[in-house]
Specification:
single chain; 4-stranded parallel beta sheet
Length: 123
């Protein structure tokens, strides 16, 4: 069973992933796969055939991940954050101005990734 830790950018999804991984590993029920580019999931999937819970961190949900949800082979833990906080966090992390991130489309990226139908079927 895949456990997808996902969420909007700069929403504490790494902390969520670390806590989930720790709980799964300490209980002996699975493993931590790590963070991957979601587009690579199809190739990563075959490397972990029978490992109990497989905890993975992604920000997007392409067709291969959606298929796991539809097949009943996935759980999802989604986290979001007030967009103002996420924006301020990204400015600090990247040391970029508000205008730089605005022109780069960070706000649009965050909002687009949280629209119904754009993310995993469970959201």
């Amino acid at each position: 069973m895949w456990v997808f830790c996902c969420g909007m950018f700069r929403s504490a999804s790494t902390l969520q992933f670390q806590i989930t991984s720790q709980l799964v590993q300490e209980s002996g029920t699975g493993i931590q796969v790590g963070w991957i580019d979601a587009k690579r999931f199809a190739e990563v999937r075959s490397s972990y055939p029978d490992a109990g819970y497989k905890v993975i961190k992604v920000h997007l949900c392409p067709a291969a991940i959606q298929a796991e949800f539809r097949a009943g082979n996935a759980l999802g833990i989604y986290i979001h954050r007030d967009i103002r906080d996420a924006y301020a966090s990204m400015m600090k992390q990247r040391q970029k101005s508000f205008d730089f991130l605005w022109n780069e489309g960070f706000l649009d990226t965050c909002l687009e990734s949280t629209k119904p139908g754009r993310n995993c079927p469970m959201f």
